TrEMBL record:
NCBIfam families attached to this UniProt entry: HAD-SF-IA-v1, HAD-SF-IA-v3, HAD-SF-IIIA
Record has RNA-binding as a keyword: no
Organism in which the protein naturally occurs: Acinetobacter stercoris
This protein's record includes keyword Hydrolase: yes
Cofactor dependence: Mg(2+)
InterPro entries: HAD-like_hydrolase, HAD-like_sf, HAD-SF_hydro_IA, HAD-SF_hydro_IIIA, HAD_2, HAD_sf
Protein name, entry field: Phosphoglycolate phosphatase
Keyword annotations from UniProtKB, A to Z: Hydrolase, Magnesium, Metal-binding
Top-level enzyme category: hydrolase
GO BP terms, alphabetized: small molecule metabolic process
Top-level division of the source organism's lineage: Bacteria
Enzyme nomenclature, EC number: 3.1.3.18
GO terms, molecular function: metal ion binding; phosphoglycolate phosphatase activity
Length: 216
């Protein structure tokens, strides 16, 4: 019986795309970029970021070549690390879903690939951490999804077996296949339905649909 729900962070709980757009627009303004340059800065940042797969020292190194920016890469990176959390917003229905799951007695956990404490700070800014009994960031534990070991570590922290857990994430391989290999039930969060899969048992387009997968 499922009694524990574990979530991915970026593009699952966190609307990373829109959070990043807001941050880039703010930073472009701080850099005194005008008009079209401000919009180009935002667009190029998002392109170079490649959905979070490229760390921002490389992103800023390229942006410095393309735009007239006096700050060093280290200075720009420091601003990103310190300020991005202030622009973090949750995906639709996330807050209501988390509160409802918590009120119905489900244990909640988080597993995020990324740097620490950067990812943990981003999550805390969503003001959901009081509902979570386990928060794991890959850098802090030297494990990364889809390695089953990171999913099993969450089970250990939550004192549950994998078959008692449901994992929700937006990446078919890293999240869904990783969780399945660890013995968990996996749900693919695919709000745009931009991809399809014949190998995934459970798929949702909105966070509230999770209640169609579990029984309260």
């Amino acid at each position: 019986m499922i009694n524990t729900i574990i979530f991915d962070l970026d593009e699952t709980l966190l609307d990373r795309t829109n959070s990043l757009i807001h941050f880039c627009q703010w930073q472009a303004k701080q850099l005194n970029l005008k008009g079209i340059n401000r919009e180009r800065f935002t667009k190029r940042f998002i392109e170079l970021d490649a959905n979070g797969s490229v760390w921002k020292d490389q992103v800023y190194a390229q942006l410095k070549q393309e735009f007239v920016i006096s700050q060093t890469v280290d200075e720009l990176l420091f601003i990103y690390i310190e300020q991005f959390q202030n622009f973090c917003i949750a995906n639709p229905e996330v807050n209501e879903t988390i509160i409802k799951l918590y009120q119905h007695g489900y244990q909640l956990g988080l597993i995020s690939n990324g740097k620490n404490p950067f990812q943990e700070n981003n999550f805390k800014h969503l003001q959901l951490s009081p509902y979570f009994s386990s928060i794991i960031v890959s850098e802090a534990v030297q494990l990364r999804k889809p390695d089953p070991a990171i999913f099993l570590l969450a089970c250990q922290q939550l004192n549950v077996q994998p078959e008692q857990c449901l994992f929700i994430g937006d990446n078919e391989i890293v999240d869904v296949q990783g969780a399945q290999q660890a013995g968990m039930t996996a749900v693919w969060y695919n709000p745009q339905k931009h991809l399809s899969s014949t190998t995934i048992q459970h798929s949702i387009q909105s966070m509230s649909e999770i209640f169609h997968v579990i029984t309260l």
